[in-house]
Amino acid sequence: MSGREGGKKKPLKAPKKEQRELDDDDLAHKQKLKEQQKALQEAKAKATQKGPLTQGGIKKSGKK
User: Fold this and answer.
1) Which of 17, 31, 35, 46 has CA 20 to 30 A from 56's CA?
2) Side-chain half-sphere CA neighbours of 14 within 13 A
3) Per-residue tens of pLDDT for the chain, all 64 residues
């Protein structure tokens, strides 16, 4: 009886993916995604500086 029989078995290693050459379209697409991500981060930072958006609404009193 070997020690490896019980428990989880390790998965086989997947072959490494080949590094392909990036053309101009790929580079432009990556740059666009990077700019969108940066704009999203800036918008998040700007939104957190302000307070919560909902200030009003129906206020309930403590009386019953």
Assistant:
1) 46
2) 3
3) 455 566 777 778 888 888 778 788 888 999 999 999 999 999 888 887 776 666 666 777 766 6
